[in-house]
TrEMBL record:
This is DUF7967 domain-containing protein. Residues 1-84 form the DUF7967 domain. Pfam families: DUF7967 (PF25921). It comes from the Archaea. It comes from Halalkalicoccus jeotgali (strain DSM 18796 / CECT 7217 / JCM 14584 / KCTC 4019 / B3). InterPro entries: DUF7967. Residues 60-84 are annotated as: Disordered.
Amino acid sequence: MSDTVQCWLVERTYDDKGLIRLVYAPTNGSGQFVTERAAATGVDATAAMEVDPEKLDSIAEENAERYEGEAERMAGRHDPDESV
């Protein structure tokens, strides 16, 4: 059984179909986890989530530094289970 890695919310986008795309990344920049949910559910995103490392995708080079910095900023300002 693999351990999980704590990933922080680094990007949130909305599309024209009512979906919210949430991108989470660990502070070491080792990958990203993307999830989508319907905006109409009213469920808030948490500042962080635990992710199986095998479910992390690679980060596009143009986003790597930004995601790592944003993950560090979120970790410094929020509790993992805090709604953001």
